[in-house]
C-alpha cells in the first residue's frame, strides 16, 4: 500500500488519502500503519492509513446510503444468518433508488451476489 501511495503521489503531486478496505470473513485486528526501521542508525519511516474492516461494520448504518460502493460492500459487513434476507432486500431497494446505468448496476450486483448468496432452500421452507 505504501508503494502505491508513493507512486500515485509522484504521478499527480497531489495529497492522497490512503484507505485500506479489509473484506475478509471473521474478526481480526489489522494494523493501520507500515513502519520501516534501519538497524544501527536512527532512521524510522512511518506510513499511516485509514482502515475499514468490513466484518466489524454494521450493515444497517449503510442501508439507506445513495452510494453504490457502500451498497455493494454491505455484503461483506457484519450481519447474522437471520439478517441475510434483510440485507439483500435493503440492497435491492438501494439499487432501485439509484437509477444506475445497466453496466454499472450489473457490476455492483455481481459483487454483492458473489458474497451474499441466498439459497432456494431458505425460500422454500
Shape: elongated
Mean pLDDT: 89
Give the DSSP E fraction (strand runs of 2 or more residues).
15-25%
**Widest sheet, order of strands:** 1-4
Order of helices and strands: HEEEEHHHH
Would you count the extended β strands for me? 4
- Report the sheet with the most strands, covering strand number, pairing sense and barrel closure: 2 strands, parallel
Distance between the termini: 46 Å
Supply the helix-strand structural class: alpha+beta
Q: Using only CA atoms, what is the Rg?
A: 19 Å
What is the share of helical residues? 40-55%
Query: How many individual domains?
Result: 2
Distinct helical segment count: 5
Low-pLDDT ranges: none
Please describe what this structure looks like.
The protein has 125 residues and is α+β, with helices and mostly antiparallel strands. The protein has 2 domains: 56 residues, no CATH class; 62 residues, no CATH class. It is built from 5 helices and 4 strands; from the N terminus they run αββββαααα. A two-stranded parallel ribbon has the order 1-4. It has a two-stranded antiparallel sheet with strand order 2-3. A hairpin with a 4-residue loop joins β2 and β3. The radius of gyration is 19 Å and the shape is elongated. The model has no long low-confidence stretch (mean pLDDT 89).
Amino acid at each position: 500500500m505504501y508503494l502505491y501511495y508513493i507512486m500515485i503521489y509522484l504521478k499527480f503531486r497531489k495529497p492522497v488519502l490512503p484507505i485500506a478496505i479489509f473484506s475478509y470473513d471473521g474478526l481480526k485486528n489489522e494494523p493501520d500503519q507500515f513502519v520501516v526501521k534501519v538497524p544501527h542508525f536512527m532512521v524510522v519511516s512511518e506510513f499511516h492509513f485509514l482502515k475499514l474492516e468490513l466484518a466489524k461494520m454494521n450493515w444497517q448504518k449503510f442501508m439507506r446510503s445513495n452510494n453504490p460502493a457502500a451498497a455493494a460492500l454491505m455484503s461483506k459487513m457484519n450481519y447474522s444468518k437471520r439478517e441475510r434476507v434483510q440485507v439483500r432486500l435493503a440492497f435491492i431497494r438501494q439499487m432501485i433508488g439509484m437509477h444506475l446505468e445497466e453496466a454499472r448496476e450489473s457490476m455492483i450486483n455481481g459483487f454483492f451476489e458473489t458474497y451474499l448468496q441466498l439459497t432456494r432452500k431458505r425460500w422454500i421452507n
